[in-house]
Structures are given as structure tokens and as C-alpha cells.
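Tutorial, part two.
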Amino acid sequence: MVNSAARGRTAQSEPDFVARAEALAEGFAARAAKHDREASFPFENFRELSEAGLLSLTVPASHGGAGAGAKYAARVLGIIGKADASTALVLSMHYINHLVMARGANWPAWLSRKLAREAVEGISLINALRVEPELGSPARGGLPATIARRTETGWRLTGHKIYSTGAPILEWYLVWARTDEAEPRVGQFLVPAGLPGTRIVETWDHHGLRASGSHDVVFDDVVIPLDSEIDVRKPSDWRGPDVAQATVHTVFVAAIYDGVARAARDWLVTFLKHRVPASLGAPLATLPRAQEILGAIEARLAVNARLISSFAGDFDDGAALSAGESNVIKLTVTNNAVAVVEDALSLTGNHGLSRANPLERHYRDVLCGRVHTPQDDSTRLALGRAALAL
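Running the prediction step on this input gives:
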């Protein structure tokens, strides 16, 4: 049955969903350190997100969701990211796929409705599984080793995916694979979780985002229906990026790590106000050096807020955006976020790196922002080549 928060949500304003996220954030933040230490998955966070109607935030209103665009989704992800970056990352991938579903012509309408209904009615999440041990990130080029073999009754899928964020809770995998045809095609196949031949290998033991459940998923001759083929094309047809997907991916990733930086900033402010070294006889907050560094932090966060809000708003308004521009947003915001946490550490010394304090976790988490596609070197290389008209 549809939960009480889901009923009538389309009649409520988008700011109401921001308020719901803020109400949940305190509990998420209180549990974050334990999940980080244990590398345990925060199932309870997603139960609460579902009860609050936030799993269907980007599901179209016509399908019972909130119908929120990128701007409000980014605000929610920033709030959740500030509380627990691992939860926010899993949620962001779910949001991205529902936004793309709603806008994409390649998704069968009946299938979009089915996944939308499930997200409205319960805890049903989706993520794209693309990265492989040999291939690395598909953004760097190359054909996937995961193979879909067509039979008279369905596709048979065999392959190995790594960094499958949210693996313990996902109900749907959007698997990047190639066909075994004479001229292979490449694309996405929709696979329900838990089918025979599917197994999750708990490999995720990472420096940051330890509670994201980004384990390996292995497919061993998994049978899926023929209509599970979502968007499969010639490899040459994938050379141009999906601008809609690239845009929301980069702005959502940026929002998460900006949230982590804001959590670090808040902890730093409290620390500076209450830390009174005997040699100083006054709070660290009274030192001009501390005030100046905190001012630099505020400047970076102000830039981040403007970039995320304006870019996501432009996307919602249908402005003509480029994948290159969205990559610059991600590069700028995530590097600002890393710099914010590094500045906080410069003022706190051993206190900031103690596991008794959250700043060291924020530092480990924020460094993961550089790993997400597109990586900084790819963005800078593309910008340089464009400037040189190469």
C-alpha cells in the first residue's frame, strides 16, 4: 500500500520536501559515525526516506511522485549529504535514473510507470551498474566485458560490475553491457535484483563513503526478458554524452560533497568557539588567523551554493546546457569542498584528525568527490582541447 506520506504529496509544495529532509537529517547524522566505523549499510535511513515520500521526489507527479526537478533534488541531496554522505550518494543515483526516465524517449512508457509506482509505494531503488574490473569507468572509452546473449525467450547476461553503489538495497540494476551479435551493440539492460545467477560480493572496504554499500555485483548467465533492453546502440552512437544525464549527475554529485563541506564548517565553528588553549586564555575564534581562514571557507561555500542553484535551475527551465559546462560545475564545487575541509583541518590539528570527532570522517568522505566521473583531468583536458580547437 502507498504510505501516508506518499498520499497526496503532489498537492504539497517542493519546499515541504526540503523540510522533510531537514527533519530526517538529525537522525542520519547521529547514526553516520557508527555506520562508517562498521561499514554497515544504513537500511533504516531509506525506510525513513520512503515514509517521508522522499524516494519518489523526482518521480513525475503524473505517476504519484513529487515531480521535483534538479534544483529541489539538489537541495535535498545537500541536506542529506551534510548528515550522511553515503546515504546521499545512494539516493542521488536513484534520483538521477528517475529524472532520466521521465525525460528519456528510450525508456518504454509501461516500464517507467512500473518503476515509478514501486518508488512511490515502497523502498524500491535503482542504480546504473557500469564500472568493471578491466574496463574501469566507461567514460574513458572501451567496450564492456559484460555480455548479453539473445535467445528466443530472453537475454542471458554474464558479467562482473564493481563500485555498485547501494548494492545491498537496490531492487533494480541498470546494467551496461554489450550484445554477442556479429556487430556488437552496447547499452543498458534492466535487471531485477535477486534473480538466479546474481550475487553480491561484499568487497567495499573504502577510505570514505564506507556505508554506501558499493560492492561488486556478479551476473552468471542471468535470464531477463527481451523487453529488458532499454537503450542499446552501436558503439559509435554513444560517442556524444547524454546531456540530461550528465547534467543531473554532475550537479547532484556536487551537491553531496558541498553538503559534506558544510558539515565540516559547522563543526569547525563550534570547535573554534569552545576551544580555549591555556596559552591563549580565550577561544580560538578570537584569533584573526582563524577568522580569515573561516572567511575563506565561507567564500568557497557561497560560490558553491550559487553554482549549484543556478545551474540546476537552468536545467529545470530547459536552458541549453552542455556536458562540458556541467563538468566544470562538478570540478569547481568538489574542489572547493575539499579545500574547505582541508582548511578546517589546518585550524584544528590533531583534534580534526581524531576519530572521536567527525571532521576526519568528513575529510575521508569529501576526498571521494574527486573520484566520480568526470574526473578532474578529463574535464581540464577537454577544456584545453576546446580552447585550442583541437
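DSSP finds eleven helices and eight strands in the chain. In part three we will examine how such features are distributed along the chain.
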